[in-house]
Design goal:
The protein is α+β, with helices and mostly antiparallel strands and 187 residues long. The protein has 9 helices and 8 strands.
């Protein structure tokens, strides 16, 4: 599987901005030469191996995180803020219905990932179910980033008090990866 380098670069930028240059240097010092090169000279729209993204997430959790996936959730939020910061995307939330926007954003999965599919299983007044399908080698830390990403998606587009819970995880033995995203009210 290959992924766009944008996810890795966004994660590195967020670590540097939120925890400092020294924290990013510690993560890179523990990373392979391939990952170091991607962070230093890579171009966001280029494809790179999924394993490099996973390596970066593992090293970040081990060196500057708590090892429980919380840092990866934070990185997912930061990535969503970058991706959803486009003025056209932000303006769309005022004219489109939440269900349409969630399905559209989930449908963009293939633009950033060479395999797998994200689909919105259901959208109701105060919650949604999102499923990730056909990832050849699921990884818990990738799922953590999607937990943060989906929470930010709900907050940016429609809601107050969003929450995202990864209720089923293939990397943890479940038959599928499923997120329950909920919110207190729609804006």
């Amino acid at each position: 599987m290959r992924v766009k380098l944008q996810a890795l670069l966004n994660a590195a930028k967020h670590i540097e901005a939120s925890r400092g240059r020294d924290a990013l240097a510690r993560v890179l010092a523990e990373s392979s030469e391939a990952v170091q090169a991607q962070v230093k000279t890579g171009i966001a729209i280029n494809w790179h191996p999924y394993e490099e993204l996973i390596e970066f997430l593992e090293v970040a959790e081990r060196t500057i995180g708590s090892g429980d996936g919380e840092l990866c959730k934070e990185l997912g939020v930061a990535g969503a803020k970058v991706n959803l910061g486009n003025p056209i995307v932000r303006a769309a939330k005022y004219i489109a219905k939440p269900e349409f926007l969630m399905r559209r954003v989930a449908g963009l999965w293939s633009r950033f990932n060479s395999e797998g599919k994200m689909r919105v299983v259901a959208v109701n007044e105060n919650d949604a179910l999102i499923e990730l399908l056909d990832i050849p080698e699921p990884h818990y830390l990738l799922c953590c980033t999607i937990t943060g990403w989906s929470k930010e998606l709900a907050e940016e587009f429609y809601t107050r008090s969003p929450e995202s819970e990864h209720v089923e995880c293939r990397a943890r033995g479940a038959s599928r990866c499923l997120w329950h995203v909920s919110w207190a009210e729609t804006l």
